[in-house]
Amino acid sequence: MAVADPLAASSAVPAGEPPGGTAPTVVGRHDAFRRRLARLGWSFSAPALIVIAAVTIFPIVYSVIMSFSKVNVSGNGYSLNGLTLHNYSLVVNYGPWRYALVFTVLYTVVTVSIELVVGTAFALVLERMTRGRGLLMAILLIPWSLITVISAELWSYMYDQQYGIIDAIFRAVGLGSPSILGSAAPSIAALCVADIWKTTPFVAIIVLAGLVMLPRDVYEAAEVDGASGWTTFWKITFPLLRPTIALAVLFRVLQAFGLFDLPFVLTHGGPGFATTPLAILGYNVMFQDFLFGPGAAIATTTALLVVIGCLLFLKVFRAQVGSEIS
Amino acid sequence: MADITLEKVVKVYPNGFEAVKEVDLDVADGEFMVLVGPSGCGKTTLLRMVAGLEDISAGTMRIGGKVVNDLGPKERDIAMVFQNYALYPHMTVAENIGFALKLRKMPKAEIDRKVKEAADILGLTEWIDRKPGQLSGGQRQRVAMGRAIVREPSVFLMDEPLSNLDAKLRVQMRAEVSRIQRRLGVATVYVTHDQVEAMTMGDRVAVMRSGVIQQVDDPQTLYDRPCNMFVAAFIGSPAMNLYEATLEAGAGALRLGSQRIELPEAVRVARPTLAGYAGRAVVIGLRPEHLPAANERSDGNVIEGDVELVEALGNELQVHFSIDAERILAEGADNAGEVTLHHGEGVARVDTRSGMKPGSRGRFAVDTERMQFFDASDGLAIRE
Ligand SMILES: Nc1ncnc2c1ncn2[C@@H]1O[C@H](COP(=O)(O)OP(=O)(O)OP(=O)(O)O)[C@@H](O)[C@H]1O
Ligand SMILES: [Mg+2]
Fold first, then answer.
1. Among A16-25, A62-71, A273-282, which range has the highest average pLDDT?
2. Which has fewest Cβ within 10 Å: A162, B156, B367, B371?
3. What is the interface pTM, i.e. ipTM, of the complex?
4. DSSP of B238-252
5. Which residues of B touch A236 (CB under 8 A)?
6. Which residues on chain A are in Cβ contact (under 8 Å) with B95?
């Protein structure tokens, strides 16, 4: 996917840019040496880059072309017949697409926010633990390590109206027996819960990795300066953790925006279009309705949105933390 | 404002290493206590225990009369300059310095004023909006200092706060620190490796070695009357010359290698116990400035040595010589980048007019009145 590029750019930020232009510029022989080294690097990477181009760039480019083409589908294949913007106008005026766009964005914002808060809390607890940290981490990672299709299947059992445990709990506390996956709002909530359950550990581990890297002595200085635990978190830990959190957010947003397997298995995108994200919509349009042109247009717009989102995010991220950590 | 009292304070690290051993130390209210000792002797550990950053394995620590063993740094009202600065990487110089004040909910205008004042004293005004990552080591160190001096704590703890500054700035800062400390009248513990800082800044100096405090005295007493060979060798630069010598029967003279030094009546009267060492080995200590070049007028005791190296310092010559007596090397005395001592080597500070040259034979007058005596077996000074 196109997403590999912004990530590579983000990791190059701290090393590549001398803070405030105070570093002396490298000139002369050293410069030439660096260029030679860079050429060598490119030549070593070339084979891999060619393979990557073949398996990722080509399909992307092809799908973009397809999205701008009149596609004729027949019994023995399809053909592209001339350029058009029709696919896009179809998609933009298609009610389910508009819904899926809003749904995907909101879903991403809500789940990632919750995962971030809960994951950070877990990480803070884990960091303070002296005993049993390994064990707790292993337990926490189980949801993350389960294959999504399987965990989605497990959740669908739990949400089941007849023999699901959640239904049993609802009845036990006197909330009746709602059909969770049968109506829109509850099934959206159910989807969010399943996603948060699965992905929070991932966020927790990333944040924990960031936490243990923070300099201990800075905390001692804060203690001597008289900072309380709460103040220390907001004035020291959080600002220093921002790059890590940003990374976690980036990973998660990319994943959440491409949401597919969880609703595909758990809710089948329903009821109606209630839990149909852009990825499932694109898939359905393309491979169930065989509308290749509009399907490609959905894929292209989604990818474009992701790229724009990431670039915006990286820009803000750079402005905020680029100069801070050196 | 408060005094600090340590009673049999011990620090055992989790790995079993005993870094501080039964330390007793009193720092009076307003007193400037300098803590010196070789690298790894436990200075930082002791300071961190006073700060509350390291728990106390045994013993009692009081600040202002109150037992603080179980109190955190916050409740001890201390300001500390960390050996490795420990600046907040995400805050500007001004924010770093003002952080503690902000936590105390001081009005913004007052914080700004205090931060400005501190930055001015420390010569940091130019960098006030920079982040620590964009500062030099010396600038960072001054920020760390600024963080401490804007506060008005009960206790100042400073761990080698000027170690990274250039000579000129160091002289300037030394005076500033002393001035601020006196103005605030705050009990201060100040760790340093710098002989000059130790001698000039401290009301008293505590010399530490392998977790044990060797001697606590005002700088002059420490210099003139070290309690053991370690302190004698550690304080002063170049270090005191320590030689093994034999006291002749009757304690009237010393044998230093093949040479003989008469001990005047006054020396023996001042140290009656010296008589007990008659016929035995003792260690004698002579500071380089107590070995001036001998001239025609020097009567009595003169020792001769082969001049190996002459360092002209402008106002005097530092003459490295060697004699055929056994040189004693007290552990940790190899401070201040001194030339490694060979067998029998010593240093004398002589007048530039003596014109001593390497390869010649130097004659040095021995100031027996200022000579120090130590028990060769336990290294303790023979004073009485
Ligand atoms: N966390 C620790 N665990 C075990 N041993 C430690 C620990 N911290 C320090 N030590 C040991 O304790 C001794 C004293 O350390 P400390 O940092 O107090 O020395 P110092 O006198 O400040 O030295 P320097 O002048 O080099 O700063 C050293 O031998 C050190 O190796
Ligand atoms: Mg230290």
1. A273-282
2. A162
3. 0.82
4. SPPEEEEEEEPGGGS
5. 88
6. none
CATH 1.10.3720.10 domain locations along chain A: 95-325
Strands B155-159 and B78-81: parallel
- Closest listed residue to residue B156, CA positions, set B28, B32, B26: B32
Q: What residue ranges line ligand 1, CB within 6 angstroms? A: B 13, 15, 17, 19, 37, 39-45, 83
Among residues B155, B153, B190, B152, the alpha carbon closest in space to that of B173 is found at B190
Average pLDDT taken over every residue of chain B: 89
**Is CATH 3.30.1330.120 what the domain over A95-325 is classified as, yes or no?**
no
Last residue in a domain, options B177, B209, B233: B233
The overall pTM is greater than 0.80: no
Tally the domains of chain B: 2
What's the burial of B106, exposed, middle or buried (CB within 10 Å: 0-12/13-18/19+)? middle
| Encoded amino acid at A110, one letter | V
**H or E stretch including B62?**
strand B58-63
For residue A29, what pLDDT band results from cuts at 50, 70 and 90? low
Closest CA to B53 of B72, B34, B27: B72
- Residue B384 included in any domain: no
Instruction: Please check whether residue B364 lies inside any domain of the structure.
Output: yes
Q: What does the pLDDT look like over A31-60, one tens digit per residue?
A: 888 888 889 999 999 999 999 888 988 888
Q: How far is CA A174 from CA A80, A163, A167, in A?
A: 59, 16, 11
Look at residue B381 and tell me if it is in a domain: no
Query: Which residue's CA is the nearest one to ligand 1's atom 19?
Result: B40
CB pairs under 8 A between A and B: 69
- The phi and psi torsions of A68 (rounded to 5 degrees) equal -100, 10
- Interatomic CA distance for residues A98 and A110, integer angstroms: 18
